[in-house]
């Protein structure tokens, strides 16, 4: 979308917002100012008169005695308030359906009361069940084409006398959700299905969950789902997960970016401001959601559709880090019972507790819902977003200070003209070339990095560098400022048409079109140095920064991606009930879906460097380009820097130096990536309810045809990814993988004693992922990922819907999963290839390798509405992840090129200081051997046990009515953080994987309290809520340990999380 189109779209949204606000009469007033004049008399007739005067539909599916009278109703009230006053203390109540466009009069649900033993029970559960049955029948008439549809003891017309809009089997309404419990989903069969009838494992989070916890994204919510974790709690040091991903998720030990939007793949980061629910599905689900994602699991977020009602919400949130979040959500019925419009907007300014970190986003969401007639409905959804984030490092930096301190803080006296510099112990240069860097203090001073004396690294047996000691820098200060930046900018459009051919046969056409710009600037900022120069470059002037800490930013990596996702889907659903057949009634009910789908993914990735096109004399090339390297000094006590520290502003800072002309340009030898994947899919899913619903089998089958296009050869230096284009890849195209799943649920107990039901289930599914992130070291696509899982366990419900739970045992396999890049860096491997003249292998966007993973364990989750106003959610899990077939590509390359790398082992390798080819090769092999030795053992920092509990109690009566209190606790056990070492006669130092170092347990406590009341003459609901997260602070914790050769059994900190301090949120919400 170009700038003109973006401005036009935003202008239209602003105009629509103004219209909605005006029509709502300043939010609260419009919804309330319905003038009623209903005389006292027969209650059934009074209800009919309220329906007529309010212009809403009503279904009275109960018999109201003719003797039942009502008081007069005069004045201006909201519709629900009018019904509440009219019904008074009668045995009935009005229940709004589909956002308030219709109301069903049902019997009041009996509250849970205590019996003589103090146990919770339902008084008269059969009456409660009959009342809910009537409610669902009323729900079917929600979209009736006639006003005043009602039935009071047979006095008026029935639903058969009017055109009735029935709920499509391709959608789920959240009206049936209770507290933290969702009872229906599309994530099992692509059709509206009861969660208890499914064998696959999923967790559904409702709006009540994120309202109580004040959470806004998947990154926050995932901690409360079993078998799931945030990726940045397990990865090594640095800000990569925060920088390169919007949603960072790990399912059953495997990192994934599987975020869906209304069952379509999406690259747009999640948020709750326009969300209806979040569904976390664990294990391969290719049968349901396609083949182009990781097999570990996925998150499907459902956005809000427009409803045929008038409603709105205004919300303001602030925290004690100075963050502010404003959101508004308005819905209006434009054409009576036909057309609804929803507009939601978000302005979020989030400040990280780590200084220099922030996340700003602006979003706009528009939804239309048009009921053409009783058979056809049309929906449109559109969202536009702009997101900017400074991705600070949540870990402690690499240590280039302690070795200098241990060596006695030596001062080195060299000048820029010195050709051969020998640094004393504890000191090292910053570059092997005569490269020049800039001192970021406004002086424009340049220094020769080859002769620049800085503290040496503290090298560990793992091949990595030790972390700085806690306390060297304030935890709340990011040592490199905002050198890592992330920009998301894009939009998503969806269209849905649903048509009911006849009862039992429905059609749906759905389309998705999304564009997202990913723009990442990744400066090399994970290290902290100390300035050991006694003088400036002239060798005479005393160095004012001697002994000061600094960071070194290298702006030679900017990943700019244009991501396009387009999809068309045609679905047909069918259902049949044998219940009317005397001979075949045991076959019960059946439903299924047949789906045809085409997905087209198109990515253009440019790898840019900040290059000085008019460099000063004497500045040598760095990887064939003259890039910028910037020294920024740090004052830990004042928490200040010697100059600006924003990656987005560094180009202007560098160009302020006379003679400089820095530009973001593509590399000389390429490194870009242009990809297009076309997938045509056929899907069939069937579910049966046999033997009165006691046996529920589910089966799915999917076949896909894949056509793959990959990056064309680079013909013009510095060409963009679009200019370079892509070519058809016959070797990986035309393949037609088939995936399938099968499951069964057996209901063992039904309505017996305390049990509503107890079922046993089994589910098996597999998956195929056509693409894999990153490239192999020889610049090829990584191989497709293959997954398979088996889940079996038990589901149960207790207390007439008061409590439901599921226990799952699983085993999951995933082949060709990405291997963490820390195995062998691009620098090491690339420089070795460059040394032997294979420069085409020395500059690629991402070097990755693969591994096979097996994850096994169990999960338990429970949701409960135990008493009136009390809701609870509990989750416990245990799993372990094992790996095998580690780094097959690297091992093959070493076999092919290893001899060439060390033909001259004493040769100095460019860009590696004084390191020789033999030393670099040995370092690479040590890294590989270390990783291979860990195969099949403990996975670093995987916390195999987790328990979460969330509970809230609302006071409904008495002096505390309107108040609610609650809290949550999250416990995670000790992880393996690394290994001691032992000396092997052939391999040298190898990790002792049988005796890992262990980290510490994590315990997070969170509290929330709220007060809610009616305001503006009882026309609006106002709620103020206080949330305290990480009560008492989450202390820093180790992510990685290693050891040094001097004492290989003693742990040394390699990477450490800064933890998370306590944060206080205050939220004000006005609902009307």
UniProtKB/TrEMBL annotation:
Residues 1-29 form the signal peptide. It is found in: Cell outer membrane. One of its GO terms (cellular component) is cell outer membrane. It comes from the Bacteria. It is a multi-pass membrane protein. PANTHER family: FERRICHROME IRON RECEPTOR-RELATED, FERRICHROME OUTER MEMBRANE TRANSPORTER_PHAGE RECEPTOR. This is TonB-dependent receptor. It comes from Pelagicoccus mobilis. The lineage of its organism: Bacteria, Pseudomonadati, Verrucomicrobiota, Opitutia, Puniceicoccales.
């Amino acid at each position: 979308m170009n700038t003109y189109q973006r401005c036009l779209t935003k202008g239209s949204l602003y105009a629509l917002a103004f219209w909605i606000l005006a029509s709502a009469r300043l939010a609260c007033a419009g919804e309330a100012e319905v003038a009623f004049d209903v005389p006292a008399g027969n209650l059934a007739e009074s209800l009919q008169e309220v329906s007529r005067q309010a212009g809403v539909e009503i279904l009275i599916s109960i018999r109201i005695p003719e003797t039942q009278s009502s008081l007069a109703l005069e004045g201006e009230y909201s519709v629900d308030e009018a019904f509440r006053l009219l019904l008074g203390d009668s045995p009935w109540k009005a229940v709004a359906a589909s956002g308030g466009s219709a109301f069903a009069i049902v019997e009041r649900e009996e509250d849970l009361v205590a019996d003589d033993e103090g146990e919770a029970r339902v008084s008269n559960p059969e009456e409660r069940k009959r009342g809910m049955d009537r409610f669902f029948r009323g729900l079917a008439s929600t979209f009736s084409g006639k006003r005043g549809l009602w039935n009071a003891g047979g006095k008026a017309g029935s639903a058969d006398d009017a055109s009735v809009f029935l709920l499509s089997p391709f959608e789920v309404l959240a009206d049936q959700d209770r507290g933290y419990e969702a009872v229906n989903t599309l994530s099992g069969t692509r059709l509206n299905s009861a969660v208890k009838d499914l064998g696959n494992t999923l967790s559904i989070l409702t709006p009540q969950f994120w309202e109580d916890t004040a959470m806004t994204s998947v990154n926050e919510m995932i901690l409360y789902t079993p078998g799931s974790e945030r990726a940045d709690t397990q990865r090594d040091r640095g800000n990569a997960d925060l920088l390169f991903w919007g949603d960072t998720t790990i399912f059953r030990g495997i990192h994934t970016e599987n975020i869906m939007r209304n069952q379509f793949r999406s690259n747009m980061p999640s948020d709750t401001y326009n969300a209806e629910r979040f569904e976390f599905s664990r294990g391969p689900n290719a049968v349901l959601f396609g083949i182009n994602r990781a097999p570990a699991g996925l998150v499907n977020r459902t956005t809000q559709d427009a409803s045929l009602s008038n409603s709105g919400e205004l919300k303001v949130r602030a925290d004690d880090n100075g963050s502010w979040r404003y959101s508004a959500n308005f819905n209006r019925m434009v054409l009576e019972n036909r057309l609804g419009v929803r507009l939601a907007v978000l302005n979020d300014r989030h400040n990280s507790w780590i200084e220099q970190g922030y996340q700003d986003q602006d979003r706009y969401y528009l939804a239309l819902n048009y009921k053409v007639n009783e058979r056809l409905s049309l929906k449109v959804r559109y969202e536009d977003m702009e997101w900017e984030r400074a991705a600070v490092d949540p870990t402690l930096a690499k240590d280039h200070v302690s070795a200098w301190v241990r060596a006695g803080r030596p001062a080195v006296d060299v000048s820029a003209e010195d050709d051969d510099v020998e640094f004393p112990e504890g000191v090292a240069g910053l570059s092997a070339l005569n490269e020049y860097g800039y001192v970021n203090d406004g002086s424009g001073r340049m220094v020769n990095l080859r002769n620049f004396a800085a503290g040496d690294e503290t090298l560990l047996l793992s091949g990595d560098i030790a972390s700085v000691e806690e306390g060297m820098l304030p935890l709340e200060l990011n040592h490199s400022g905002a050198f890592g930046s992330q920009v998301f900018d894009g939009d998503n459009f969806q269209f849905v048409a649903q048509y009911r051919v006849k009862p039992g046969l429905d059609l749906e056409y759905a389309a998705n079109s999304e564009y997202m710009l990913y723009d990442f600037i990744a400066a090399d900022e994970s290290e902290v140095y100390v300035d050991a120069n006694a003088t400036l470059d002239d060798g005479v002037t005393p160095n004012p920064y001697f002994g000061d800490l600094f960071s070194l930013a290298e702006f030679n990596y900017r990943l700019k991606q244009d991501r396009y996702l387009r999809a068309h889907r045609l679905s047909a659903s069918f259902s049949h009930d044998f219940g009317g057949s005397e001979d075949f009634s045991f076959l019960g009910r059946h439903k299924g879906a047949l789906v045809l789908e085409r997905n087209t993914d198109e990515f253009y990735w440019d790898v840019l460097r900040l290059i000085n096109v008019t460099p000063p004399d004497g500045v040598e090339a760095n990887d064939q380009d003259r890039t910028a390297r910037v020294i920024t000094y740090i004052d830990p006590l004042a928490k200040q820097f010697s100059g600006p520290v924003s990656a987005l502003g560094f180009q202007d800072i560098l160009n302020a130096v006379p003679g400089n002309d820095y530009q973001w340009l593509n590399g000389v030898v390429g490194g870009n990536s242009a990809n297009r994947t076309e997938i045509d899919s056929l899907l069939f899913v069937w579910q049966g309810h046999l033997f009165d619903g006691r046996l529920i089998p589910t089966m799915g089958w999917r076949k896909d045809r894949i056509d793959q296009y990959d990056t064309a050869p680079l013909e013009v230096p510095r060409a963009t990814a679009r200019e370079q284009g892509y070519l058809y890849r016959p070797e990986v195209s035309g393949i037609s993988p088939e995936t399938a799943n099968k499951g069964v649920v057996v209901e063992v107990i039904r309505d017996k004693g305390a049990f509503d039901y107890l079922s046993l289930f089994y589910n098996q599914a597999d998956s195929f992922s056509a693409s894999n992130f990153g490239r192999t070291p020889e610049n090829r696509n990584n191989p497709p990922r293959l997954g398979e899982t088996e889940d079996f366990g038990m589901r149960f419900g207790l207390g007439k819907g008061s409590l439901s739970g599921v226990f799952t045992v699983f085993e999951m396999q995933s082949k060709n999963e990405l291997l963490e890049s820390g195995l062998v860096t691009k620098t090491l491997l690339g420089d070795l290839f460059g040394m032997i003249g294979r420069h085409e292998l020395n500059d690629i966007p991402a070097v990755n390798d693969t591994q096979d993973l097996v994850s096994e364990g169990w999960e338990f989750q429970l949701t409960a509405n135990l008493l009136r106003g009390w809701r609870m959610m509990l989750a416990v899990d245990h799993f372990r992840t094992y790996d095998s077939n580690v780094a097959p590509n690297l091992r093959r390359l070493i076999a092919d090129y290893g001899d060439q790398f060390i033909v001259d082992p004493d040769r100095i390798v460019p860009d590696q200081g004084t390191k020789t080819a033999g030393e670099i090769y040995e370092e690479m092999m040590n890294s590989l051997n270390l990783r291979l030795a860990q195969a099949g053992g403990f996975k670093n920092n995987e916390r195999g046990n987790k328990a979460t509990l969330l509970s809230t109690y609302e006071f409904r009566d008495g002096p505390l009515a309107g108040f609610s209190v609650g809290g949550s606790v999250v416990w995670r056990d000790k992880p393996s953080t690394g290994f001691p070492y032992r000396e092997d006669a052939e391999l040298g130092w190898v990790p002792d994987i049988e005796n890992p170092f262990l980290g510490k347990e994590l315990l997070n406590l969170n509290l929330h309290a709220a007060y809610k009341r009616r305001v503006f003459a009882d026309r609006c609901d106002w709620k103020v809520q206080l949330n305290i997260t990480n009560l008492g602070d989450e202390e820093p914790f180790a992510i990685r340990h290693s050891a040094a050769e001097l004492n290989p059994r003693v742990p040394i900190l390699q990477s450490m999380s800064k933890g998370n301090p306590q944060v206080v949120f205050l939220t004000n919400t006005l609902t009307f």
